[in-house]
Every structure is written in structure tokens, then in C-alpha cells.
């Protein structure tokens, strides 16, 4: 198959897409309560009296409050025993009340007041001992921690990741279903994007189409979009200038969307026109490395072992070694869920045991500077017996979407 030849106009491609979000609702109160109960069990086991959840995905995970972090403190305090409570600027109280899925008293501060003092007062009002261990959100900005520290509290502040990560790493059936649908949506967008390619089209035009296509399948739009042609495809996250497509160019498109807070992230690489022998050989090696990583993902094995398997495959094919180019310059994969990149990671040194419910990207990219790059990225989740693909890997360089299979 010659990708793009005899293809569609953007308008024709959009007509072929339809809304795919039917039947997919957001996380419900019951699941938030299960998450809170698990976190509180972990806190009691580890002797942590309370954790502070800052605005962002950690706050949303436990409370449903969708709030971007900023210089103003917005969050929640979850004690090891008892109900959680919110902290927010006074002028945002009504909005927090509207966003939250989990009830809790909202403690407010005015612009001239210290939210850090209010946080400490909240802990005391919850009956927490002055020298207790308190977990602080790992995504909290340093200036917030420093503001708390300067108040001279006797609390023993620790990283709350020891509570948050065991909850978020392993996804529930509901989370997996949301991620599956989001990834299905993005894969259809990829197919549509391939159908509009023509000589002379720009990366900017393709990215704009992908944004529209994600909306057509029911997403708010693309969470992100990387479109690269030719030599630029050797730079994992792109270059500053747009490119224009030529016959024989490698095409790399990496994009994703969000469904009720859960992310997709899929990359496809193929040649516009007829692949040459070098493109074909390295594309096949990339596919083999992706499969080697998948097969190495066994329950109980460390996350780093998956990265090692991909590198062994690439090195056997004459690339690398290690991070050297031509070869794989970055980790093999990342965790995914409410954040596009979240722990644990498929990288050397991550000793986290692979466990049921964990979700990962699998993308051992090959970069050949001055020529092209190839990234095949699909995601898998761990079951009790091994990994399972969310989306089936690219079929072949000639038929990347398996349309002729």
C-alpha cells in the first residue's frame, strides 16, 4: 500500500468519523470512596496521619475536583481517619463545591491571608498530633512546601507518593474501560490522518486536521499532537519548524485525547510512498523491539526488565548500544492513566514489580539523525497472567493499519 496516494480530502475524512463516547460515563462516587478507603488503609499501615492533595490529577483522582495547579493553594486534606476537607481561596468556594464528587468541609482563605497557616490549622482541628507524619502531594510546587516549612511547624512532612502511587498505579475495570475507549478513538483519528496525506501537505495542516478529528469522535480535542516528516522524525518530540511532505518521507504522528480524565497516546510511523530497503529494515526492527518488550512484561518482574528486552533486540540488530545513536535514546515506556506520563516507568533502574492493573506505553523508538526516526507506540495493561494490548500494534510498513490484512 502506498500511504496517502488516492487518499481523501480532510472534509471527506471527517465525514467518515463519528462520535465514539456513547455509554462511557465518568468515575462515580462509589469508586472515589473505594480510593479514599484504600489510601486511608495505607496511611494507617505506614503511620501517616494525613496527606495533602494538591490541585491537579492527584486531587481529581480522590475527589473528582478538576483544577489546574497555580500559585494559589487549592487542594484537600485526607486524614487517616475521618472525612477529607478542602482548602481553597474564598472566592473559589462555590466553584469547588460544584466540581467536587466527594463531600467535605471547604476551608477558605482570603487573598491577604496565608493558605499555609490555614493548612496547618486544618490538621490541628482534625485532632492530628503536633509531631505526626504528614504526607505532602509529590506534585506540589516547592514554594508551597517552603511556605509551610517557614511557619516552623513540628509536623514531620514526608512525600505522599508512598500512599498515592499504590492507589494510582493499578487501574480499576472502570479506568481500563475509559482508557480503552480513548485509545480506540485516537486510533481511528490516526487512520483518518493517514488518508489525507498528499505531497506538499504541511505538518501544520495535518495537526489541525487531527484536532478536528478528535472532536469528531467525541473528545474535547487533541491533548497533544506531534506531526513530523522526513529527517525531522528522528527528533522524538519534534523540531520548531513545520515540514512539507515529499515522496519517500518517513511520517511520524504521535497524538492522544482525553475521556473523562483518562488519556490516550498512540504513535504511528510509516513511509509516504514506497519504502526503501533501509526504511523497511529499521521499521521491522522497531516492530520486533516493541514485541520483545511486550513479551518481557511478566507479572512480578521489575519494570526495568521490559526496557532491557527492547534494547537487547535493537542491539542484536546493530543499533546502540545503550542510548547511543542510531538507536533508542530514551526509556522504552511510561505509565499512563489520568496523566499521559506517570509512574511507574519502563526504564532501567525502576524495580517496581509489574502487577495486574498497571498500564504502560511501549515505544522503543529508533532515531537515525540525518535520515529518519521510527516510533511505534501502543499501550498495554497487565492482567494476572500477563500483558494485554489496548490497541493492536501496527501491521506492517506497507499496511500500517492492517487495512489490507
TrEMBL record:
Record domain Creatinase N-terminal: where: 35-168
Stored InterPro entries: Creatin/AminoP/Spt16_N, Creatinase/aminopeptidase-like, Creatinase_N, Pept_M24, Peptidase_M24B, Peptidase_M24B_aminopep-P_CS
CDD domains with a match to the protein in the record: APP_MetAP
Keyword field: Hydrolase, Metal-binding, Metalloprotease, Protease
Membrane-spanning segments: none
One protein family per Pfam: Peptidase_M24
Domain Peptidase M24: 178-383
Name the UniProt record assigns to this protein: Xaa-Pro peptidase family protein
Amino acid at each position: 500500500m502506498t500511504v496517502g496516494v488516492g487518499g481523501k480530502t480532510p472534509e471527506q475524512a471527517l465525514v467518515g468519523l463519528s462520535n465514539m463516547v456513547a455509554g462511557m460515563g465518568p468515575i462515580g462516587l462509589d469508586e472515589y470512596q473505594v480510593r479514599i478507603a484504600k489510601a486511608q488503609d495505607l496511611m494507617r499501615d505506614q503511620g501517616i496521619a494525613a496527606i495533602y492533595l494538591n490541585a491537579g490529577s492527584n486531587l481529581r483522582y480522590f475527589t473528582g475536583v478538576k483544577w489546574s495547579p497555580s500559585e494559589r493553594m487549592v487542594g484537600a486534606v485526607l486524614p487517616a481517619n475521618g472525612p477529607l476537607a478542602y482548602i481553597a481561596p474564598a472566592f473559589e468556594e462555590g466553584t469547588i463545591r460544584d466540581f467536587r464528587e466527594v463531600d467535605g468541609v471547604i476551608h477558605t482563605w482570603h487573598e491577604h491571608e496565608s493558605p499555609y497557616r490555614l493548612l496547618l490549622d486544618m490538621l490541628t482541628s482534625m485532632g492530628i498530633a503536633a509531631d505526626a507524619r504528614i504526607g505532602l502531594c509529590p506534585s506540589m510546587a516547592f514554594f508551597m512546601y517552603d511556605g509551610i516549612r517557614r511557619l516552623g511547624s513540628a509536623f514531620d512532612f514526608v512525600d505522599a507518593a508512598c500512599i498515592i502511587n499504590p492507589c494510582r498505579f493499578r487501574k480499576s475495570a472502570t479506568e481500563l474501560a475509559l482508557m480503552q475507549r480513548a485509545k480506540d478513538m485516537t486510533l481511528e483519528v490516526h487512520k483518518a490522518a493517514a488518508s489525507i496525506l498528499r505531497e506538499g501537505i504541511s505538518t501544520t495542516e495535518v495537526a489541525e486536521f487531527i484536532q478536528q478529528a478528535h472532536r469528531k469522535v467525541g473528545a474535547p480535542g487533541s491533548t497533544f499532537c506531534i506531526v513530523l516528516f522526513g529527517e525531522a522524525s528522528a527528533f522524538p518530540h519534534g523540531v520548531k519548524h513545520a515540514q512539507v511532505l515529499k515522496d519517500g518521507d518517513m511520517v511520524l504522528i504521535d497524538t492522544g485525547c482525553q475521556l473523562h480524565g483518562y488519556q490516550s497516546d498512540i504513535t504511528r510511523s510509516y513511509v509516504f510512498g514506497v519504502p526503501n530497503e533501509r526504511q523497511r529494515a529499521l521499521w521491522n526492527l522497531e516492530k520486533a523491539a516493541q514485541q520483545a518488550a511486550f513479551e518481557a512484561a511478566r507479572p512480578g518482574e521489575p519494570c526495568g526488565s521490559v526496557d532491557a528486552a527492547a534494547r537487547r533486540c535493537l542491539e542484536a540488530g546493530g543499533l546502540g548500544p545503550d542510548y547511543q545513536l542510531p538507536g533508542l535514546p530514551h526509556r522504552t515506556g511510561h505509565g499512563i492513566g489520568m496523566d499521559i506520563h506517570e509512574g511507574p516507568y519502563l526504564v532501567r533502574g525502576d524495580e517496581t514489580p509489574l502487577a495486574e492493573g498497571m498500564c504502560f506505553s511501549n515505544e522503543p523508538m529508533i532515531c537515525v539523525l540525518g535520515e529518519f526516526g521510527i516510533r511505534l507506540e501502543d499501550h498495554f495493561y497487565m492482567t494476572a497472567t500477563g500483558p494485554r494490548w489496548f490497541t493492536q500494534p501496527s501491521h506492517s510498513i506497507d499496511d500500517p493499519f492492517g487495512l489490507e490484512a
